[in-house]
Amino acid sequence: MRDALTPDQVIAAARSLLERDGYQQFSMRRLAAELGVAPTAIYWHVGNRDELLDTVLGQMGDTIGAVGVVGASPAERIVSAATSLLGNINEHRGLVELAHQRGILLALLGPARLALAGEFARAGLHGAQVADATNAVVQLVGDHVTVGHVARDWPEQAVGDVVADAIVPSLDPTVTATLSRPPNRSRTFAVMLNALVDGLLRQPAAESTQSAHASGRTSAPEGPARAAGGASGAPSNP
């Protein structure tokens, strides 16, 4: 005899089904078949489809948005947070797609966004710089996942002989050899992420340099002005 079905069992099975097959393939009938019960039993325990999906997503904020932050330097900590977020999204892609379709993905990513914002603020960024930097990192992660998901159905792309047979005096042979192979997406993402974070963290220093230059330009005319005033005014005491 089958043990009595519980709401937690239904929710766990729904989450597993969504993770495995994606939200577009999800239905209450498939869930009932997975659990070996009648569809009416599902409705009795967790309500209708939308209510069930809301419950599943409501439990995912602490999973998708929770990122690990490690490292000694600000750059290392920010990169680790972004890499952790990427891992969470890849691990729960079916639920991430569902959250996106239901318009709550940014809400689920809230803890990750706040963690990144805190790291940028501690690194010396302020105001709009923090928000822009946080959004830039999250968007890079999202774009990488999206392109990777779409590219699953693409045929393998040939590099061609132009690069493989090229002889460019200014390039080391290892460069053309590497360019003659399809890019490693994971490696390229790491390069882009590190470059983005390094550039974002330079903003306070660049801002200080610009302010110093602006201050210098503003005060520069004071010398000649004082000299002109001295020339036309009373002679100075010996």
Structure in words:
By secondary structure, this protein is mostly helical. The protein is built from 15 helices and no strands. α1 packs across α7 and α6 crosses α13. It is flat. The protein starts with 6 loop residues before the first helix and ends in a 6-residue tail after the last helix. The C terminus is likely disordered.
Tags for this model:
disordered C terminus; 71% helix; 15 helices; 238 residues; flat; mainly alpha
Give the overall shape, derived from the CA principal axes.
Answer: flat
* SSE order, one letter for each helix or strand: HHHHHHHHHHHHHHH
Distance between the first and last residues' Cα: 114 Å
**Uncertain parts:** 223-238
Number of helices: 15
Mean pLDDT: 84
Helix share bin = over 70%
* Sheet having the most strands: none
Structural class: mainly alpha
- Strand tally, please? 0
Range of strand content: under 5%
CA-based gyration radius: 29 Å
Task: Give the SSE layout.
Elements: H1 7-21, H2 28-35, H3 39-46, H4 49-58, H5 61-64, H6 74-91, H7 93-101, H8 105-108, H9 110-122, H10 128-150, H11 161-164, H12 173-179, H13 185-201, H14 203-219, H15 222-232
Helix pairs in contact: 1-4, 1-7, 2-3, 6-9, 6-10, 6-13, 9-10, 10-13
Offer a concise description of the structure.
71% of the residues lie in helices and 0% in strands.
